[in-house]
Automatic annotation (TrEMBL):
The keyword Signal applies. PROSITE patterns: PROKAR_LIPOPROTEIN (PS51257). Keywords: Plasmid, Signal. This is Lipoprotein. Residues 1-24 form the signal peptide. It comes from Pseudomonas putida (Arthrobacter siderocapsulatus).
């Protein structure tokens, strides 16, 4: 009985994924051009379940102020590594909706992300 439930759950997930991401296989010209522009600007783009995610290949380095005290003097702090990331969704009209956030690399993991929507 559990095998049947697992099969139905997998089939349902595949059906939902196929419906929500059908535009990814055949995007509108506006969406295709946006993704191509981001790639030309140094972003790596990958299809997700219902969005296309584009993230910068090279981080923006944000220099941090030195920490100073009377005993050690000033100690330089490591720069923050920040990446711009875009999540692109296509509306029924073919116009892409873009959600932008900035993520920080900490110990080789990407953290954070404040999102803002643009159309």
């Amino acid at each position: 009985m559990a095998l049947h439930r697992n099969f139905y759950a997998i089939a349902l997930c595949a059906l939902i994924a196929g419906c929500t991401s059908s535009w990814i296989a055949d995007p509108s010209p506006a969406t295709r051009n946006l993704v191509n522009d981001l790639r030309l600007d140094g972003f790596e783009c990958n299809a997700r379940l219902s969005t296309i995610e584009c993230i910068q290949k090279e981080p923006v380095r944000q220099k941090q102020p030195s920490k100073c005290d009377s005993s050690k003097g000033c100690v330089e702090q490591p720069a923050l590594l920040l990446y711009n990331r875009y999540h692109i969704e296509q509306q029924d009209t073919g116009i892409p909706t873009v959600h932008h956030d900035v993520v920080q690399q900490v110990e080789s993991k990407l953290l954070g992300g404040e999102k803002g929507a643009q159309q």
